[in-house]
Amino acid sequence: MQRANIILLSLILMGYLAESALLATAGCILLVMRLSKLNRLMFLLERRGLEVGLIFLMLSVLVPLAHDNIVYKELVMKTLSPQGLLALIGGTLATHMNGEGLKLLKLDPQLIFGMVIGSLIGIVFLGGIPIGPLMAAGLTALFLEVIYWFK
Known about the structure:
Elements: H1 3-17, H2 21-35, H3 39-66, H4 72-79, H5 82-107, H6 111-126, H7 133-149
Membrane topology: Multi-pass membrane protein
InterPro entries: UPF0756_TM (IPR007382)
Subcellular location: Cell membrane
């Protein structure tokens, strides 16, 4: 059995044991694609999968805004509340960190392996959700920046 198949089966098993349907499903889909020799689709997924995933994530978050039953005055009040202002700051910092992570991944793409392993550890042991490598890369960029400050 090829090494990639063993790794994918391991991911499926880890997803099952950790009760992470996302990890198990992703492993299953990749294994089926691999066994079906859908290399072109895998290449497309590798190149554009993150963008497509982020589009669906953004859509799921923005759906409430598309409903007609939103009271915009309440929306503004919530946004200007202390929690809303913290959410604005959090969103601003998160997108900045994601941008820094993307720069880091372009400079040193080999770091993705450590981020994937770290994500798996977070899923299995901390009950985390694999939202994408950009946040992991952004945090890595922040950690590296802090280390450089102390050198």
